[in-house]
Structure formats: structure tokens, C-alpha cells
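From: lab user (bench 3)
To: helpdesk
Subject: output format question, protein + histidyl-adenosine monophosphate

Hello, I'm new to running complex predictions and I'm not sure whether the block I got back is the full result or only part of it. Here's what I submitted:
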Amino acid sequence: MIRGIKGVKDIPPSQIPKWSVVEKTAHQLAQGYGFKEIRIPIFEPTELYIRSIGGATDIVEKEMYTFLDRDGSSLTLRPEGTAGVVRSFIEHNLINEPTCKKLYYIGPMFRHERPQAGRFRQFHQFGVEMVGTTNPYADIEVISLLWRFFSSLELPGLTLEVNSLGESSDRQVYKENLVTFLNPKIEQLCGNCRRRIDTNPLRVLDCKVPQCRTATEDAPKLTDFLSQTSKDHFNQVLTGLDTLSIPYNLNSRLVRGLDYYSMTTFEVSCSSLGAQNAIGAGGRYDGLFETLGGKSTPAIGFAIGLERVLLALPESMIPHPKPWVFVAGFGPLGSQAGFSMMDTLRSIGITANTDHNASSLKSLLKSADRLSAPFVLILGDDEVSQHHAILRNMQTKAQEIIPLSTASFTLKDRLSG
Ligand code: HAM
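Helpdesk reply: Thanks, we reran it on our side. This is the complete output you should expect:
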């Protein structure tokens, strides 16, 4: 037997109703906010992710699925969607397409992380990217969509944290101050953070190791280094969130694990999820287009981890299965009539099914029971010769005789009732 890969899950049919409701909500809300769907490749040149996410990030250093193509070029399974969307934007000059400024995507992403509850090596994201404006209203709109997605699905225990990373010049000055603060404390930091002081000092701030938390308790705050422009922008975003009654906490340590961010960043956590409680996150990435060789173009977006949404989804949000009918045709005439009846029912939009391995009424009813059929239409030779069928309600066990000529309409009526 060949087993599936660790951290890479099958989604069995029993889980599909949950996925459908989550995906449907994503499509409806994103489109309701004026976003158009884009589908980007699952693998891209490795260089795309190194340049966008950053060579000194966990994703690029340890988590990418990278392999050589037959011609020797290095390819990587996408660890996230933003880089691919921006690559597509630049390559196809989408910035000149008025309808393409707001894009969304739903699909699998790949990161070689240690699998645990809510953390997988193949997982799915619903993401949006709004391109071409620095207006704080864009930030508010994107965060509002994120928040509305979660509230539409009635997810409990959510906290939205927001921060501003400022412009890159603000961060440069801040980084120097942070490194000066961290250097004398190097002995107290974990191995990862010691390395990060040189490569990516901001990341030391969101290290979860308790000793690093203690050592950085009094670290200078990025918000104290913001320029007036950055402060004004951030204040307008916060005012907008207040206006829309979206609750948030300020978190000056929220630096995010991808290097492309600037200005507004945000993350939503869900208290019922345990250690892997980040359910969605995003921010501005006003410098990424230039980093990837495009014209300077501001942008902002988010991505939501759909497996985590499913883990937090209340039972009440899972739709009941649509009523359907099991057709039990038996005997030479009954089987033939049953088969034609299924076709008629399907042609008028009624879900119909049978069991081709069952030939007696007893075995057909047993099969209908196993499939939890709400209704069974019984058609034996006797029924066919008398031009009627028996409709059995499997829950109440009540049976009624209905004329064959109008059976499909009777069923449509019963099923919609
Ligand atoms: P991210 O924070 O790396 O951001 O991922 C977004 C979300 O994906 C996380 O909050 C989490 O819910 C989910 N996620 C990440 N890794 C895993 C995993 N191994 N297993 C299950 N779920 C996971 C981004 O990906 C950015 N591209 C977001 C963005 C879009 N920023 C701007 N635009």
C-alpha cells in the first residue's frame, strides 16, 4: 500500500459540504466587494519567491518545496499566492486593465512545516489583492472583507491585531535602533534569533520562545519611528475600522513572516484553534512590484487558511444535505421503468440514485437505508402494470401510491416541501 504524504490530507466526501459553504462564502463576498477571481499556477520559478518573500525568511530558508525541472531550472510549489499574482500582474500589464485592480484566489499552497493540528504541508488559502492605490480606504475595505468573511461564517473567538510597519525608510532607522538594543542581549536569545539579528532583526520581535519574549520586552517600538505620513495613514485606517465597528487590538510586534510588507499589517487569531491560531493575515506591500521588476505600484491584500476556518466552523453553518430520491426498480419491467424514471427525475433537477448491485426489493431498501435516502420510489413489475409507483418516506416509514404519469412532479413537490 502506498500512503499519502505526511501533512498532506485527503478531503473525504463527508468534509465537502463544509468546504463548499466556506468556498461559496469566499466567492460571494469577494465578488460582492468587486474582486474578480484569478487562477495562477501552482508552481513558479524559485527566484520569484526568494525575491518577494525574502531570502532570510523561514518560508524561503526551510519550508519551500523546490525541485529542478528537466532543463535544470529551479522551480517551487507556491508557498503563498501574493508573489504569483504580482508576477502575473507585471507580466500581463494588468495594471492597465480597469477590471483587474481587485483580484482574489482560492487554492492549495505548500510549505514544509512540522505538521500538527491546523498546520499542514498542503493547505488552502482564500486570498485577495487590491492593486494600485495607497488610499487608506483600500486598507479598510480589505480588512472589512476579511472580517465580514469570518462573521458571515459565525466563527467564534476572533481577535484582529493591527500594526503599521511604516515606509521602508522608517524601518531602516528602526532596524538600526533595534539591533543596537538586541546586541547586548544576544546571549539571552534563541539560536534562530541570534542569527536573525544580522539577517532579519524585526523577526526577533515575533519569536514565540519565552526567553526571547522576555529579552525583547523593552525593545524600542516601531510605531515610535513612523514618519508623519505613515502615522497619518495608519490613523486613518484605524478611524475607518472604528467607523465600521470592526474591533481591533494594536500590536506593535506584529511584523509578519514575509519580507514584502510595509505600512499596514494585520492578523486574525481564533481562540478555539490552539497553537496554530492564526486564521488569516495580510498587509500592504507597496514595494513588491518594484522588487519583482515592475513599475512602482502600491497594493494590499490578505490570505485566510481554509483548513483553520473549517476547524473553527460551527456545526450550525454546515448545510443539510439536499433531499433526494432512491429509485428501487426490480423485476424485468420495474428495473426498466426505474431506470427511465431516474432519467426523468434528473432532467427536472431532482437528485436520483439507485444501487445496480441490488435486485430484490429487500436489498434495494437496505441499500437506500445505508445511503440515508430520505425517499424511496418503489417500482416492481406489479406497480408498472398498474401504472403507479409507491413512494416511501424513509423517516416516517409512511407509503403512498402515486400515479406513474405524474410521479416526477409529485416527487418535486414532496422534496421541495
Ligand atoms: P501568511 O500569514 O503566511 O500570509 O498565511 C496566511 C494564512 O494561511 C495564515 O494566517 C494561516 O491561516 C494559513 N496558513 C499558513 N501556513 C499554513 C499551514 N502550514 N497550514 C495551514 N494553514 C496555514 C500569506 O500567505 C500572505 N500571502 C497573505 C497576503 C496576501 N498578504 C498580502 N496579500
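A quick orientation on your result: DSSP finds 15 helices and 16 strands in the chain. Let us know if anything else is unclear.
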